[in-house]
Amino acid sequence: MKVQVQISIYPLKTSSLSEPIGQFCRILKDRGLKVQTRTMDSFVIGQSDAVFESVREAFEQIAEKYDVVMDFKISNACPKEAKKKVKKEQI
User: Fold this and answer.
1) Across residues 74-90, what is the average pLDDT?
2) What is the CATH classification number for the domain harbouring 10?
3) Angle CA(56)–CA(40)–CA(69) in degrees, nearest 5?
4) What integer pLDDT is reported at residue 15 of this predicted model?
5) What is the pLDDT of residue 78?
6) Which residues of 9-35 are buried (b: 16+ CB within 10 A; e: fewer)?
7) Poorest-confidence range of 27-31, 37-41, 67-71, 85-89?
8) What are φ and ψ of residue 26, in 5° steps?
9) Total domain count for the chain?
10) pLDDT tens by residue, 17-54
């Protein structure tokens, strides 16, 4: 199932916020996910199994080096592709 995730990463007790956030996003991109980074969050689109596994891996990798808080919201209704599929099925 295709999903869209809104993720915010908050590194704690570090002078550089960009390094852990950049590392997190690179891991997701390297796993083939579409990542759109914004000022306070990122949107990730992909197949649900790939998204869950990649987010888990990315979180674990940055959590080894930093104290971090992650806010994670997921939807199967937000991606345009998913909306089109639902409309077709309802007809």
Assistant:
1) 61
2) 3.30.70.930
3) 40
4) 86
5) 74
6) bebeeeeeeeebbebbbebbeebebeb
7) 85-89
8) -65, -40
9) 1
10) 889 999 999 999 999 999 999 989 999 999 999 999 99
Neighbouring C-beta atoms of residue 6, cutoff 10 Å = 16
pLDDT mean over 67-85 = 77
Burial zone of 41 (CB within 10 Å; 0-12 exposed, 13-18 middle, 19+ buried): middle
Q: What's the pLDDT at 82? A: 44
Tell the residue number behind the tokens 């199994």, with chain if given: 49
Helix (H) or strand (E) holding 42: strand 42-47
Task: Determine the Cα–Cα distance for residues 39 and 28; give it in Å rounded to an integer.
Answer: 17
Residues in the chain: 91
Domain range enclosing 24: 2-90
